[in-house]
Every structure is written in structure tokens, then in C-alpha cells.
Amino acid sequence: MPIARANGLDIEYEAFGTPRDPALLLIMGLGAQMILWDEAFCAQLAGRGHYVVRFDNRDVGGSTKFDDRGVPNVLSAMTAVLSGGTVDAPYTLSDMAADSVGLLDALGIDRAHVVGASMGGMIAQTVAIEHPARVRTLTSIMSTTGNRALPPAKPEAMNVLLAPQPTDRAESIERAVTVFRTIGSPGFPFDEAYVRERATRAYDRGFSPDGTVRQLVAILASGSRTEALRAVRLPALVIHGADDPLVPLEGGIDTADAIPGAQRLIIDGMGHDLPRALWPRLIDAISQLTARA
């Protein structure tokens, strides 16, 4: 896959469709590589008239790693958040938003429809707040505002998130299965073979568990976007699963409430993943939003 120089980093990306169509930038979540935006999902979005770009965030996959900045202490960061203190982080979501805009620059894209999932939704929100001229529409999926008053993850989801990082290929694959069994959509079939295939590809593309820790602390350090989102004046869509154990539904509701005029799509049976059975509904909703712009 090609690599672009963006915001001073190497960002690995892949594009689908024709560049003459309006760009749609897909931003993935915590520790997740761009391949979790499935190729067929991207192709279907491209078939709706979008030039679709997916990419690896900093610290995962083929993009620049920040190993020289060490591994922050997650428990200390969480304690600081709970006490109302500040978090010392190697970087923040604002830096990751600047990476996204830098990739648009490198690709010669003036404005894009921006779609983010989970942490990617947080980054997409930050792009809309800090770089509004670069955004046509905003879609935030299974994400939240960072409002510390919102309900936390369910204990089982928090436990799997904070479990020790895998040390080799086999452990990495088994961890992915455990994670998605725990946080995935209870209303839709669990495709273990698919999860294993994606986890194997992700490990072989670039194994960087320390990068996941740095990204998690970036989330903790970035605070709440609720007030800043009230100033966003863009067509926006918030998609959330009614049964999300990692980012409870209240996070999606808070996001939709904060953005003036935002549409909301709450899906029964959806957890914290993108099951294939939901792709038509998600693609329809995203494409209807982009058509407004």
C-alpha cells in the first residue's frame, strides 16, 4: 500500500474509487488498522460515488511508530482523569486529527466527508472542531464526546481492554477473538473465522501493542469535546449500537445532542463492531448524509 508524508509522519493508506468523486476519509479506532474498514465495505461506499480513503493512524500498521516516546502508565492516566487532573501523554487526539488533515493535504484533497469509528469518531469530531473548512460532513460511529460524566464501559469490556498485551502472533490472534466476542454485536452472528483472518493480517502488517497504549492515553488526555461540538456547523450523523458495552449508548446520544442538527441512528443489537449484516444500513445512512452536501 502507498505511504504519504503527512504532518511530518509516514502514513500508510489505500484508496478506492475515482479521485474525481467527493473524498470520503475513514478513520479507525483504538489500536485498529485500516483493514478493519473491510475492502468490500470501502468498495461499496465507492460505488455510491465516493473516493474512499482508509489509512493507518500513527502508532499502528504501516504508519510511523512513536516508540521513542516510551509507554505511558495507563492506570496513572486513568487516576488523573478520575481526580480531575491532567494527563501527561506522548500526543493527543488533536495531533491525530492533524495527521488526518495532513493526509488530505498529501493527496491534494481540499475537503472530505469524514467518517470515524470509536476512537476514530473522536478524531473525526476533532477534525470537525479544529479544521472545519476541510470537512464536508461528519459521521461519528460508536464513539463519544469524552464527557467524563458519561457512563463508563461495562466491566467486562473494560477488563478485556486493559488485559495484558499479547507478545506474539498466536496470542495476538486469540486476544482479537476474545475482544470481539466481548464487545461485538449480540444481535448479529459472530464470525470467528473473519476475526481471525483480520487479526492475522494485522499482526503481519505491523505488531505494535505499545502504540495502542499511547493511543489510549491520548484519548484520556484529550478531555471533553462536548462544548466545542456545539459550535460545529456541518451536516452530521451519529451512529451507535444500543448494545455497545465498550462505549455505552449515552456516548452517542451525548454526541448527537452536542452537534446542532445532527441526525442519529441507534441500532438495536449492535455492539462495538461493524458486522457485515449492518453494512447496507450503514452505507445507506452515510451516503444519504453525504448527498445533502
Quick gist of this model?
By secondary structure, this protein is α/β, with parallel strands linked by helices. It is built from eleven helices and eight strands.
Can you put this structure into words, describing what you see?
- The chain has about 290 residues and is an alpha/beta fold.
- About 40% of the residues lie in helices and about 15% in strands.
- The protein is built from 11 helices and 8 strands.
- Strands 1-2-4-3-5-6-7-8 form an 8-stranded mixed sheet, with helices on both faces.
- Helix 5 (about 155-160) packs antiparallel against helix 6 and helix 6 (about 170-185) crosses helix 7 (about 190-205).
- It is globular, with a radius of gyration of 17 Å.
- The protein starts with a strand and ends with a helix.
- The model has no long low-confidence stretch (mean pLDDT about 95).
